Amino acid sequence: MPTDFDKRAYWHHRFSTETSFEWLLSSTEFIAILKPLLAILEPSSTRILHLGSGTSDLQNHLRQLDFLDVTNVDYEPLAVERGRQLEQQVFGDVKMKYAVADATKSLPLPNGSNAQSPHNDNKFDLVVDKSTADAVSCGGDEQVRRMAHCVRECLADHAVWVSMSYSASRFDIGELPFDVEVLAKVPTPKNNATDPDIFHWCYLLRPK
């Protein structure tokens, strides 16, 4: 992964022309992994944070499952606008939230209150990202740590963070406020049967 994936200039240039792209796997495949977690949540009262939403249509899949309190965050304004457009194209309106924020510095809460609030009812019930932690990792382990602490601050105690990554060791770093386990191991397509097995990794992070 090129080191400029952690640079805002890279994403501004990319999103100036890109209208739709899915990292690692499709939203349909990611939703299939999330389904057991989503099944125990009540859509009408669940708050979801989608980190590094980019030009993914993941938010549309969540809305189709009746999850409307979804906050889609990217630190490039063009990506945020692309997300609104994708929702508008499918549903004819925009009901979900979109915000510009840097996941290594601070993240919005569902009602816009301060992330330091001790009240769990003002925090997210689920945080998801599809390769956003990978992009952040181009800035080094400390950036991933900062992202993890920002997520923890806006995550309710009973909630979890699900992160899709190309790396088998993405969260093998110290000082994380989460217990980490592998939720799914997804094989990547092969061109030839003799090609080595390569996987994408879906991590489940529970607050400590």
TrEMBL record:
GO molecular function: methyltransferase activity
Gene3D superfamilies registered for this protein in UniProt: Vaccinia Virus protein VP39
Coiled-coil intervals: none
InterPro entries per the UniProt record, alphabetical: Lys/N-term_MeTrsfase_sf, SAM-dependent_MTases_sf
Superkingdom of origin organism: Eukaryota
BP GO terms, sorted: methylation
Keywords: Methyltransferase, Transferase
Family assignment from sequence similarity: Belongs to the methyltransferase superfamily.
Name by which UniProt lists this protein: Uncharacterized protein
Organism: Hypocrea virens (strain Gv29-8 / FGSC 10586)
Lineage, uppermost ranks: Eukaryota, Fungi, Dikarya, Ascomycota, Pezizomycotina
